[in-house]
Design a protein that fits this description.
The chain has helices at about 1-15, 20-35, 45-50, 55-60, 70-75, 95, 100-120, 155, 165-175, 195, 205, 225-230, 240, 250-260, 290-305, 310-330, 345-365, 375-385, 395-410, 425-450, 490-510, 520-535, 555-580, 585, 590-615, 630-655, 670-680, 690-705, 710-725; strands at about 175-180, 185-190, 275, 285-290. With about 725 residues, it is mainly α. It has a domain at about 1-205. The strands form two sheets. It has a two-stranded antiparallel ribbon with strand order 1-2. A two-stranded antiparallel sheet has the order 3-4.
Length: about 725
C-alpha cells in the first residue's frame, strides 16, 4: 500500500514540477527507490547527487553556511550578489561533476534560469503563444512591428518567492550593502553602474572589497556634507550678511559675467541669468529661471535702497555671486571679479563665504515655508555644492529633494493656467523652473541609483514656450506665439532635449518598478527614442566627433550633451538585457545597442578630455571638468563594455554559438583600446576622484584578465604622443 502511494506521489511530482527544492528532492528519490520494479542505484551514486546545502562561496572557502539568502558570511564580505545555491539535478551525469568550479557555477546558473523560465511560462494563461526570442529589428533602423506575446526575461516579470536566491531578483530589486564597521547601510538600483559591475565574475575578488567602487563616494573629513543640512547653524543678522557683499563694481562685473554669451558675441539684449547645469559644464543645457531684465531692475533698486529687498532676495544675490566664484575657481580665471578689487583674493575662499551667506539667508527667510526667490536660491545653492565635488554625494541629492518639495509647496507642479490669481508672467517663469527641476530630478536620481522624486502623473505643468527675454514683462496679459528660428537660445536647447528626456523618465520609472515591462514595450520605447533623435533640430545634431570642431563652443557643447543624453537613454533602456546570463544568445539587438552606444559615449569622453588638456584647442579657456553627472555616463558605459567583454570571453572559451543577425561594428581590440583610453583619463590627477580612481583599478583588472594590459612605459609614450600630436577620434587605434 505504501509502495503504491509512493509511486503515485512521485508521478504527480514529476508532472507538476520541473524543479524541486532540497526537501522535495529527497522525498521523491525515496519514493522512487521503494517503488515496485525499481532498481536501487549504487550508494556512491546517491551521495554524488546529494543536493548542495551550503552556498557556493561557503562551500569553496569551507565555511559554515547558515543557508540564508544571502547567508551571513556573504553579507559580511559585501558579496551578497554572489551568494548562490546550486541545486544539482539527480539525473546529471558524472562528467558534469568533473568540471572546474567556475564553469560548473555558470552551467548551473543557466540551468536554473531555464527551469524557472519553463515554470513561469507554464503558469501563464496562454503558454503556447509566449516566445523568449525578442523581435529582431534591422540594423540601424527602428524595431519592426511588435508581437504582443513577447515578454521580458521570466525572472524579471514574475513575483519573487521566498526561496529565490538573491541573484535571481537582484537586477530588479537592486542591492543593499552593509558596513557594520561604520554602521552604514545603503541601497542602489540594479541598473546603476556599480550594481552592474557586480555581475563581472572574478573582478571583485582580485580588487578587494575596500577598493571596490560602491556608486556613491563616502563623505570625507574635509567635506562633511551640504552646508544647508549639517553646516554652521549659528544665527546671523541682516547687517552681518550685507557686510560681506563685495563692492558694487565687483558685483556688476559678476552679473555681467553671467549675462555674456559663452561665445563672447554681443547681443542687443544680453544673455539672461540662467540656472546652469554646473555638474555638466558651463556650456551645457541652460534653462532660464530668473528673468534677466526683472533681476537687473531689482538689483538697481537694491543699491538705491538696500532695505527695500527681502533677505530672500539677498540670498539669491549671494547665490549668483557664489556661482560666479565657482566658475572662476574651476576655470582658473577672474572674468567675474578682479583679484585687486576684491577683498578676498582666493576664489575658493570667496566660494565658501558666498555659499555660507546664501545658507544664512535661506535660514533667516525660513526656507521650510518657501516664498518668492526660495526655489531659485536653492537651485543656485544646489549647483554650488555640486561644483565642488567630482564624486556623487548622496547629501547633495537630499538638497535637491528640498528643492522639489519647496516647488510643490508653491504649486509649480500644477500649470498656472488653472489659477487666475497667478499672473501670466509668473506662470511662464514657473513653467521654466519646473521644467528644469523635472529634468534634473531624472538625471540626479539615475546618478545615485534611486527612484525619481517626481513621477509621471504628479504634474500637469505645460512645457515653457520658446520666447526671448524681451517677450516677457511683469504686466503682460497674454503670452505671444512661440519664436521661430531661435532654437539656438538656452531655452531652445532645453526644449530640443525635452522629448528624449521624457522617454528617459519613463525608462527610469520602469527600471525602479517591481513590475518589469515586457520586451515589446522596450522596443516601442526604442522606436520612440529613435524618432525623437531624428526630429532634433539640425542645429543640435552631432554627425560625427571629428566634425565638431567646425561649430562654435556653445553649439559644440550643446550638440555633445544632447547626443550623450540620447546615448545614455539607449543604455538605460537596454542595459538590463546585457546583464542576463543568456544575453548574447537571446537579446542580440539589446547587446548591440549597449556596446555601440557605450563606445560612442567613450569617444565623446576622449574628445572632451582632449579639449580640456590641450591649450591649442578652442575650448581651452572653458575647460571641461569631470563632473559627477557626466562621470556617471562614462562609468556606466565602461562598465557595460567590461561586462560584454567578460561574457564574450566566456562564450569563446565554451565554444558557444552566437547569432549573427546584428553584427557589432567594433571588435574586441576596439573595446580594449576604449577601456584603456578611459583608464588614462580616470588616472589623470586633474580629472580623477575617489570613485574614478577605484574604477580605474577595475578597468586595469579587466584588461589584465584578458592579457591586454600594456606596460607603464607604453602608456606614458601614448599619453605624450596624444598630447603633442593630437588624437584621431574616429577610431581607437
Amino acid at each position: 500500500m505504501e509502495d503504491v502511494s509512493g509511486t503515485t506521489i512521485a508521478q504527480d511530482t514529476s508532472m507538476t514540477h520541473q524543479r524541486v527544492g532540497d526537501a522535495d528532492t529527497d522525498t521523491a528519490t525515496a519514493t522512487r527507490e521503494n517503488a515496485p520494479g525499481k532498481k536501487l542505484p549504487p550508494k556512491a551514486s546517491r551521495q554524488r547527487f546529494k543536493p548542495q546545502l551550503s552556498c557556493t562561496f561557503c562551500r569553496t572557502r569551507k565555511l559554515k553556511c547558515d543557508r540564508a539568502s544571502p547567508c551571513t558570511n556573504c553579507m559580511k564580505r559585501d558579496i551578497s550578489s554572489s551568494c548562490t545555491y546550486l541545486h544539482t539535478s539527480p539525473r546529471a551525469k558524472p562528467a558534469h561533476v568533473q568540471r572546474d568550479h567556475g564553469r560548473s557555477k555558470d552551467v548551473q546558473e543557466r540551468i536554473r534560469h531555464l527551469e524557472e523560465l519553463v515554470i513561469t511560462l507554464m503558469n501563464r494563461d496562454q503558454p503556447k503563444n509566449v516566445s523568449t526570442q525578442p523581435p529582431q529589428p534591422p540594423q540601424h533602423t527602428p524595431p519592426p512591428p511588435l508581437s504582443s506575446n513577447t515578454v521580458l526575461d521570466a525572472d524579471l516579470i514574475r513575483e519573487p518567492r521566498e526561496d529565490d536566491p538573491i541573484s535571481q531578483t537582484i537586477d530588479r530589486l537592486g542591492r543593499v550593502s552593509l558596513d557594520d564597521e561604520n554602521e552604514q547601510q545603503f541601497y542602489i538600483g540594479g541598473g546603476h553602474w556599480a550594481a552592474i559591475l557586480e555581475n563581472i565574475a572574478g573582478l571583485k575578488d582580485s580588487i578587494g572589497i575596500d577598493e571596490w567602487p560602491r556608486g556613491t563616494a563616502p563623505v570625507e573629513k574635509k567635506y562633511r556634507g551640504p552646508e544647508l543640512l549639517i553646516g554652521d547653524t549659528r544665527s546671523a543678522s541682516r547687517e552681518s550678511i550685507l557686510a560681506c557683499l563685495p563692492t558694487k563694481e565687483v558685483i556688476d562685473r559678476s552679473i555681467d559675467y553671467l549675462y555674456v554669451s559663452l561665445d563672447g558675441a554681443s547681443r542687443k539684449y544680453p544673455f539672461p541669468l540662467t540656472l546652469i547645469s554646473a555638474q555638466r559644464a558651463k556650456a551645457d543645457s541652460m534653462i532660464v529661471v530668473v528673468h534677466g531684465p526683472t533681476f537687473r531692475k531689482e538689483y538697481a533698486e537694491f543699491w538705491e535702497d538696500p532695505d527695500s529687498k527681502s533677505i530672500a532676495w539677498i540670498g539669491l544675490l549671494f547665490s549668483v555671486l557664489c556661482l560666479v566664484a565657482n566658475f572662476e575657481y574651476i576655470h582658473g580665471d577672474n572674468a567675474g571679479t578682479s583679484a585687486s578689487e576684491s577683498i578676498i583674493r582666493d576664489p575658493a575662499d570667496r566660494v565658501k563665504i558666498f555659499r555660507t551667506k546664501t545658507v544664512q539667508c535661506l535660514v533667516m527667510s525660513n526656507y521650510t515655508e518657501p516664498g518668492a526667490y526660495t526655489v531659485e536660491t536653492l537651485c543656485f545653492y544646489y549647483f554650488s555644492e555640486g561644483f565642488m565635488n567630482k564624486d556623487t554625494l548622496f547629501g547633495t541629492w537630499m538638497v535637491f529633494g528640498i528643492i522639489v518639495r519647496a516647488a510643490m509647496r508653491l504649486g509649480f507642479h500644477r500649470d498656472a493656467s488653472h489659477y487666475p490669481n497667478i499672473s501670466v508672467f509668473r506662470g511662464e517663469m514657473q513653467r521654466r523652473l519646473w521644467c528644469c527641476i523635472v529634468h534634473l530630478d531624472n538625471l540626479s536620481s539615475c546618478q545615485v541609483g534611486l527612484p525619481r522624486m517626481i513621477n509621471e502623473g504628479m504634474s500637469d505643468t505645460k512645457p515653457p514656450r520658446l520666447l526671448l527675454e524681451e517677450d516677457l514683462f511683469e504686466t503682460m496679459e497674454s503670452l505671444p506665439p512661440a519664436r521661430a528660428g531661435h532654437e539656438a537660445s538656452s531655452l531652445g536647447h532645453a526644449l530640443a532635449k525635452s522629448t528624449i528626456a521624457a522617454i528617459l523618465e519613463k525608462i527610469a520609472d520602469a527600471g525602479n518598478s517591481v513590475i518589469s515591462m515586457g520586451y515589446d514595450e522596450v522596443l516601442k520605447l526604442d522606436k520612440q527614442l529613435t524618432d525623437a533623435h531624428r526630429d532634433i533640430p539640425d542645429y543640435y545634431k552631432a554627425c560625427d566627433v571629428d566634425d565638431l570642431g567646425s561649430s562654435s563652443i556653445t553649439q559644440t557643447m550643446r550638440k555633445i550633451f544632447i547626443e550623450l543624453l540620447y546615448l545614455k537613454t539607449r543604455l538605460f533602456l537596454h542595459r538590463k538585457f546585457l546583464v542576463l546570463p543568456e544575453s548574447l544568445q537571446v537579446y542580440e539587438y539589446s547587446v548591440k545597442v549597449c556596446v555601440e552606444s557605450s563606445l560612442d559615449i567613450l569617444r565623446y569622453q576622449k574628445y572632451l578630455h582632449h579639449q580640456a588638456v590641450d591649450p591649442k584647442q578652442s575650448m581651452f579657456v572653458k575647460r571641461w571638468i569631470s563632473s559627477s553627472l557626466t562621470t556617471h555616463d562614462f562609468l556606466l558605459s565602461a562598465t557595460l563594455l567590461c561586462l560584454y567583454l567578460g561574457k564574450s570571453i566566456d562564450a569563446a572559451d565554451k565554444d558557444e554559438d552566437r547569432p549573427s543577425t546584428f553584427s557589432i561594428e567594433w571588435g574586441t581590440d576596439d573595446i580594449l583600446q576604449a577601456l584603456l583610453g578611459s583608464y588614462q583619463i580616470w588616472t589623470d590627477p586633474d580629472h580623477s576622484s575617489d570613485e574614478t580612481t577605484k574604477f580605474a583599478k577595475v578597468l586595469k583588472a579587466m584588461l589584465q584578465k584578458v592579457g591586454k594590459w600594456p606596460s607603464a612605459q607604453d602608456i606614458d609614450k601614448e599619453t605624450v604622443q596624444k598630447k603633442s600630436n593630437g588624437v584621431n577620434f574616429g577610431n581607437y587605434h
